[in-house]
């Protein structure tokens, strides 16, 4: 970075936005405003979802530290899992009767779409049939799963069926866990892992068969894999591709793969009676528990499956349910076995759902949507469906994808109900009304690619060598404006060049599971030697406010004084760093926080996030140096990612550079009341007026350096006018091509 302090012209530089469109997008209509990615459904269910999110947060914060009694019970040794009649069981699966037809179709067609009820044996059997038929002689039989847990547990099951140890003939590969060997012929993996393999080898040549399982789940990775596999299949006539999907989407997949044949495995299902309530309960967790108790007390034998949204919620529900059953008295206390299932649950615990229980004991499984299709549990006759799921959606404030509770789709609701009719007629208790089902739920889930941040997705595809995203063969293309916006953003961030090709820093940014702007700031900070500081600043920025202001006026004055003491002259970014560091020096003291009117819990959470971010940087061999709190350097690095958030003073107010909106520095800012020509803010929040939160003073020339494709210098007849009035910056950008983008060797990049 040029040392701008020593550049005497600086105070006279004026910049303005001159948004440049990369040449590969010439002629395109680029959207000017950010695209709203999240489609917020409206209605009662949406309100209940928001409420549930709030309650979950509260519970999380007030969780008792000691182990609950239910936990201790859960930790008892695992009972018997029925493995003996496995061969028989395999022959009873619906897929068994289709074996020959399946093998024949796969032999004769490069791509086959297979549909069948959950539990019919697609995932566990087809791979084995193909292995037995010799398909693994020229390569592995690979099978992708949207979820880590499913990949692991299915691999275990198949290894058991084959009668080998896991990791030999049958293996699995999920992030940070590769249980395979040179002998592995049947390999289960997450779709993300195969995507990673495709990054290195576009022909995916290690495999003779690829089964894209649960393709209807439409994870971002699956949506990215579909075109890659399609292309590989065209190049490799020997490759066999199998796509399994729910009935609803089969035709679509078939058409996508050039009218590939669709094979249906006739199911063996029993009728499921749907039970509707008269109204939506505001607290679905409480309503679920009541429903479970009612089933347990009054219905015939048969296990219960309840769909909740996540680990914390499931654990809370298990604990409460355990207490209620216990309260029924000694005779009843052991009649209900409560079992949680969620992806972070250790696999031994997960095996409990397959445990064989003594007669007269009913299983009650509380699961996330993992039990919708990925895991098959026999013996379920009662399903309780509150109608919610936790989904990853783009959070513009965090600049990251975050998990949010939202209503499920009708397709999901029906899939859930179906779980009750696998072995006998069943009942599904929905906790929402039929009206809500018809009017508020969407017919099917929006694919991830249409609801997540596309800048990141686009960057991943670029990193895979896909240069032309606009005509990329997506199954459901994201909207064109959303994609264009993402590409321009990547260009301005320097992740792709004017021809749309990935740059070196872009390649690095692709490794980070977050907003590219944030990824860039972190990478830059590592190169510039201020990663330690930046990690702290980014972590604290992603939290709600650290400060509290008591209502008592005397106390409030004390709080304001404390805040001023901790303030840094350059603004809020360095102030936040200062606060964190002082807290760290106090030994992460609770008392220090109390004395300074700082939320201790928020700081502790920031510490956690910081740790995670540091882990990512280290994983990709970035150095974690500290620069000793050099504000100039740190703020320049921040500008390299957040240059869009700049504002310039005019009179007593500021105007954003990007769209000239009138904004003001929030009174809580360290810069409040100071007059600084140019500032960088982290967020805009509209209350009584548009306020900038977390604001720091910057030099306009930093913006020029940070984003030459976004800013240009204004011609301002200054005293010592320079010859280099900036002409189309675009040219300069390409002349210096690799120069201004970072590299590990060059910290300082010259412009002249
Ligand atoms: O893929 P699909 O849903 O068609 O079925 P699957 O996952 O292959 O499961 C077939 C059968 O294997 C299930 O009905 C279960 O009885 C059994 N299974 C099991 O007992 N334990 C597992 N971990 C997986 C499957
Ligand atoms: Mg399956």
TrEMBL record:
It is an enzyme of class 3 (hydrolase). Its EC number is 3.6.4.13. Residues 103-266 form the Helicase ATP-binding domain. Residues 291-465 form the Helicase C-terminal domain. Keywords: ATP-binding, Helicase, Hydrolase, mRNA processing, mRNA splicing, Nucleotide-binding, Nucleus. One of its GO terms (molecular function) is ATP binding. The keyword Hydrolase applies. It comes from the Eukaryota. It catalyses: ATP + H2O = ADP + phosphate + H(+). GO terms for cellular component: catalytic step 2 spliceosome; U2-type spliceosomal complex. One of its GO terms (biological process) is ribonucleoprotein complex biogenesis. This is RNA helicase. It comes from Wickerhamiella sorbophila. The chain holds residues 210 to 961 of 965 of the full protein.
């Amino acid at each position: 970075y040029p040392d701008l302090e020593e550049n005497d012209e600086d105070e006279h530089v004026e910049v303005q936005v001159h948004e440049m469109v990369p040449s590969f997008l010439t002629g395109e209509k680029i959207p000017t405003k950010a695209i709203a990615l999240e489609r917020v459904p409206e209605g009662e269910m949406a309100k209940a979802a928001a409420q549930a999110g709030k309650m979950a947060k509260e519970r999380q914060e007030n969780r008792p530290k000691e182990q609950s009694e239910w936990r201790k019970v859960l930790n008892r040794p695992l009972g018997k899992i029925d493995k003996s009649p496995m061969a028989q069981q395999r022959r009873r699966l619906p897929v068994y009767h289709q074996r020959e037809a399946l093998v024949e179709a796969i032999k004769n067609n490069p791509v086959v779409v297979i549909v069948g009820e959950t539990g019919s044996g697609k995932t566990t059997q087809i791979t084995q049939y193909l292995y037995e038929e010799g398909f693994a002689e020229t390569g592995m039989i690979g099978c992708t799963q949207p979820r880590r847990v499913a990949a692991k547990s299915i691999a275990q099951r198949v290894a058991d069926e084959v009668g080998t140890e896991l990791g030999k003939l049958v293996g699995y590969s999920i992030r940070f866990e590769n249980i395979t060997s040179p002998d592995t012929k049947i390999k289960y993996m997450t779709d993300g892992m195969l995507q990673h393999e495709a990054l290195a080898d576009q022909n995916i040549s290690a495999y003779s068969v690829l089964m894209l399982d649960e393709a209807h789940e439409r994870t971002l990775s699956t949506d990215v894999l579909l075109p890659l596999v399609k292309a590989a299949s065209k190049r490799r006539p020997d490759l066999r591709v199998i796509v399994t999907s729910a009935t609803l989407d089969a035709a679509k997949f078939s058409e996508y793969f050039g009218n590939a044949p669709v094979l249906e495995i006739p199911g063996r299902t029993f009728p499921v009676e749907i039970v509707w309530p008269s109204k939506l309960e505001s607290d679905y967790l409480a309503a679920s528990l009541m429903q479970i108790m009612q089933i347990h007390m009054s219905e015939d034998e048969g296990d219960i499956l309840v769909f909740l949204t996540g680990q914390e919620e499931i654990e809370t529900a298990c604990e409460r349910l355990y207490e209620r059953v216990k309260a029924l008295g000694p005779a009843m206390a052991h009649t209900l076995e409560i079992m949680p299932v969620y992806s972070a649950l250790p696999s031994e615990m997960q095996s409990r759902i397959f445990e064989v229980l003594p007669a007269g004991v009913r299983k009650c499984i509380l699961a996330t949507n993992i039990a919708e299709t990925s895991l098959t549990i026999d013996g379920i006759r009662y399903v309780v469906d509150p109608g919610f799921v936790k989904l990853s959606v783009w959070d513009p404030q965090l600049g990251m994808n975050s998990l949010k509770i939202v209503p499920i789709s009708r397709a999901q609701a029906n899939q859930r109900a179906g779980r009750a009719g696998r072995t006998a007629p069943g009942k599904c208790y929905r906790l929402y009304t039929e009206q809500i089902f018809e009017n508020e739920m969407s017919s099917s889930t929006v694919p991830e690619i249409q609801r997540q941040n596309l800048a990141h997705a686009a960057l991943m595809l670029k990193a895979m060598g896909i240069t032309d995203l606009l005509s990329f063969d997506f199954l459901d293309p994201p909207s064109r404006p959303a994609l264009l916006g993402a590409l321009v953003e990547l260009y301005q961030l320097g992740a792709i060049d004017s021809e749309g090709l990935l740059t070196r820093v872009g390649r690095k940014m692709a490794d980070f599971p977050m907003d590219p702007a944030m990824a860039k700031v972190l990478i830059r900070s590592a190169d510039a030697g201020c990663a330690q500081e930046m990690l702290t600043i980014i972590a604290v920025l992603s939290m709600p406010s650290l400060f509290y202001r008591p209502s008592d006026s005397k106390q409030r004055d004390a709080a304001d004084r404390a805040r001023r003491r901790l303030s840094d002259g350059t603004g809020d970014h360095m102030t936040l760093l200062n606060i964190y560091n002082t807290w760290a020096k106090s030994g992460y003291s609770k008392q220090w926080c109390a004395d300074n009117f700082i939320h201790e819990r928020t700081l502790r959470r920031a510490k956690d996030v910081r740790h995670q971010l540091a882990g990512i940087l280290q994983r990709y061999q970035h150095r974690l140096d500290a620069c000793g709190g050099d504000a100039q350097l740190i703020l320049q690095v921040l500008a390299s990612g957040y240059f869009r958030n700049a504002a310039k003073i005019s009179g007593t107010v500021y105007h954003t550079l990007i769209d000239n909106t009138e904004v003001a520095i929030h009174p809580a800012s360290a810069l409040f009341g100071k007059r600084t020509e140019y500032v960088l803010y982290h967020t805009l929040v509209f209350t009584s007026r548009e306020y900038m939160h977390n604001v720091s003073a910057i030099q306009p020339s930093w913006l020029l350096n940070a984003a030459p494709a976004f800013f240009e210098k204004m011609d301002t007849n200054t005293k010592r006018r320079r010859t280099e009035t900036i002409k189309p910056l675009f040219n300069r950008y390409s002349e210096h091509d690799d120069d201004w983008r970072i590299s590990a060797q060059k910290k300082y990049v010259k412009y002249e």
